[in-house]
Amino acid sequence: MLSSPQRRALLAGAAGLAAASLAPAAARAQATLGKVTLAGWSKPISEITNLLAEPDKGFFKAQGLDLAYLPGAGGGDAIRNLLSGQADVAFTDPGSLFTALDKGEKLRAIYDIYPQNVFNVVSRKSANIKRPADLKGKRIGVYSLSSGTRQNLLVMLHQAGLTERDVQIVVTGVLNFAPLLQGQVDATAATDTGLLVGRRRGLGDVDVMQVRDSLNVSSDLFVVREQVLQQRQPLLRAFLKAYRDSAAWMIARPEEAAAIASRRAIDGTDREVNLEVIRARNASAQAAGRALGAFDIPSLQKAADAYHALGLIQRPVDVAGVVDASLLPGT
């Protein structure tokens, strides 16, 4: 019969073996959280290099995730791909989110990607478009009919007492200023990075109206279905941690990101342009006094109220009930 000290030693040894066997299992569980599909608003372009760098940097792999990126042609596309079940997370603009909520969709915003409004309307000097009211009767390009460029153009029009019926909207494609240069449109709704690339490619002297002067609100958010939020919290928490790590890397190492963009982005042929685009996007990802991803709920509520007041959505949106910040890293 074993003495008490012997039994205690044997039990302690068994406990140690059990703990040792469980540790690898826990590590394996962390390493196999699974695949996460992100529905984007764009093709793989340089401004999302922090996502495209996954094969090189492995931010999502480090969190046990296999990242897949599903391209789109606007924030509305990202929402549709989310609602169809093709994606777990949508990379979309607030206007597209408000529109989906207005239709009764159960969605939640879980991360503020770009807390600065980056949209604008660009015209050649000869068009003499100096203020939003001057857009009346003009042909205006947008990336797509489901894009944030169209949503923000509508905000600018409504602030000037105009509607979509007062202009002619023309789909020109993402980052494409050729129709403006060729006179096919009088103005183009774009983003800061789109304008930057356009200028580098010979756009010349232009007039620029910033949408933030009409409504300064976040440009893009991560959005999920409410059901997925409830069912896949560990995966979504890991996704947000990986994304914030990737964003922090691109902010700290823009030159390295520009080099990776030259291999990974479809518009990344010029490394100097990549660097300018990446620095611009880094700036829009940061808000004074707030951690990456943190929400400014009053600002988003102001935007939702404006969409409702302008008739862009029919029902008011309670932003506090739509935003869920509980999965943000550090919360």
From TrEMBL:
Please verify whether the record's keywords include Iron. yes
Q: Quick one: which pathway?
A: Cofactor biosynthesis; thiamine diphosphate biosynthesis
Q: Which reaction does it catalyse?
A: N(6)-(pyridoxal phosphate)-L-lysyl-[4-amino-5-hydroxymethyl-2-methylpyrimidine phosphate synthase] + L-histidyl-[4-amino-5-hydroxymethyl-2-methylpyrimidine phosphate synthase] + 2 Fe(3+) + 4 H2O = L-lysyl-[4-amino-5-hydroxymethyl-2-methylpyrimidine phosphate synthase] + (2S)-2-amino-5-hydroxy-4-oxopentanoyl-[4-amino-5-hydroxymethyl-2-methylpyrimidine phosphate synthase] + 4-amino-2-methyl-5-(phosphooxymethyl)pyrimidine + 3-oxopropanoate + 2 Fe(2+) + 2 H(+)
Q: Which UniProt keywords apply?
A: Iron, Metal-binding, Pyridoxal phosphate, Signal, Thiamine biosynthesis, Transferase
Give the superkingdom in one word. Answer: Bacteria
Pfam families of this UniProt entry?
A: NMT1 (PF09084)
Could you cite one Gene Ontology molecular function of this protein? metal ion binding
InterPro entries according to UniProt: NMT1/THI5, SsuA/THI5, TAT_signal
Span of domain SsuA/THI5-like: 47-257
| Gene Ontology biological-process annotations | thiamine biosynthetic process
Cleavable signal peptide: 1-25
* Entry annotated with the keyword Ribosomal protein: no
Report the sequence similarity comment from the record. Answer: Belongs to the NMT1/THI5 family.
Q: What's its job?
A: Responsible for the formation of the pyrimidine heterocycle in the thiamine biosynthesis pathway. Catalyzes the formation of hydroxymethylpyrimidine phosphate (HMP-P) from histidine and pyridoxal phosphate (PLP). The protein uses PLP and the active site histidine to form HMP-P, generating an inactive enzyme. The enzyme can only undergo a single turnover, which suggests it is a suicide enzyme.
Q: How does it assemble?
A: Homodimer.
Q: What is this protein called?
A: Thiamine pyrimidine synthase
Organism listed in the record: Bordetella ansorpii
